[in-house]
Write a structure and sequence with these properties.
By secondary structure, this protein is of the alpha/beta class. The chain is about 45% helix and about 10% strand. It contains nine helices and six strands, in the order αααβαβααββαβαβα. The chain has helices at about 5-15, 25-40, 45-55, 75-85, 110-130, 135-140, 175-180, 205-215, 235-250; strands at about 60-65, 90-95, 145, 160-165, 190-195, 220-225. A six-stranded parallel beta sheet has the order 3-2-4-5-1-6, with helices on both faces. Strand 4, helix 7 (about 175-180) and strand 5 form a beta-alpha-beta unit. Helix 4 (about 75-85) crosses helix 5 (about 110-130). The radius of gyration is 19 Å and the shape is globular.
């Protein structure tokens, strides 16, 4: 890297951190708060309003429902606004390493993080909508946004972090147990999934299992929200397909 490029990168990182002399800290904080409010997504349905309240108040939230209901978008947006407001130190993104259907493009090359990264792009995209792509790139480099493979989550402990675990109907029971025992101080865990699109063919899938645990045991500061097809806020044709597949049966 050239000296000019290095100086530009350092200035950009300082501005993201709010320490750049070219942007006084009070003004940066005002801009941060203003952007946080302007980028916050407003819930469109009563169920989404309840979901948003749970995301703001609870330590563990499980969201089960079909595509298009906002179960991943809302926590990603909320986590990004918290990061802008400096209310959390880290956003942790988790997802099973599972492709859609039985056919795959083969195993991805690289480290575990590099292998799982393509599956994380929807969540990263939602966060970029709030923070901006350059800021997200810097935060991914310095660890403030962490891509966490489930395979290596044992032994981790997250503090002052917002963990979003997506597509967890494809997680196995052992993975759910490992994930839910990583919650540290001032930490929120959101588990999203759709039990209809279950890739676990033997035993309980991750979403069904964690809902069973929360139903049978007193787990503090936790809650489950279940969305229906009627709450889909995507295009009309998406909702039509959801209804059709519900009648035909999910594979």
């Amino acid at each position: 890297m050239s000296n000019n490029a290095r100086r530009y990168t350092n200035r950009k990182e300082a501005k993201v951190a709010g320490t750049s002399p070219h942007q006084p800290k009070p003004k940066w904080e005002d801009d941060r708060q203003e952007r946080s409010q302007s980028k916050r997504i407003q819930p469109k349905t009563n169920k989404q309003k309840l979901y948003q309240h749970m995301l703001e108040q609870m330590t563990l939230v499980v969201a089960d429902g079909p595509a298009g209901v906002g179960k991943t978008l809302l926590p990603c947006n909320h986590a990004a606004t918290l990061m802008l407001a400096k209310k959390i130190d880290q956003i942790v993104l988790v997802r099973p390493y599972a492709a859609t259907g039985s056919k795959t493009m083969g195993y991805n090359k690289g480290t575990l993080t590099e292998k799982i990264l393509p599956f994380m792009l929807p969540m990263i995209g939602y966060i970029k909508d709030v923070l901006g792509a350059p800021t997200v790139d810097i935060m991914m480099q310095d660890g403030r946004i962490l891509i966490q493979p489930l395979e290596t989550i044992r032994g981790q402990s997250f503090k002052n972090a917002y963990i979003i675990a997506d597509e967890m109907q494809s997680a196995e029971v052992a993975e759910i147990q490992a994930l839910t025992t990583r919650i540290g101080e001032d930490c929120t865990l959101v588990i999203c999934g759709d039990k209809r699109q279950n890739d676990v063919k033997k035993g309980l899938d991750g979403v069904t299992y964690i809902k069973k645990i929360l139903d049978n045991y007193e787990i503090r500061d936790s809650g489950v929200i279940e969305f229906t097809m009627e709450e889909c806020v995507r295009s009309g044709i998406c909702k039509d397909f959801l209804v059709a597949y519900e009648k035909e049966g999910w594979v």
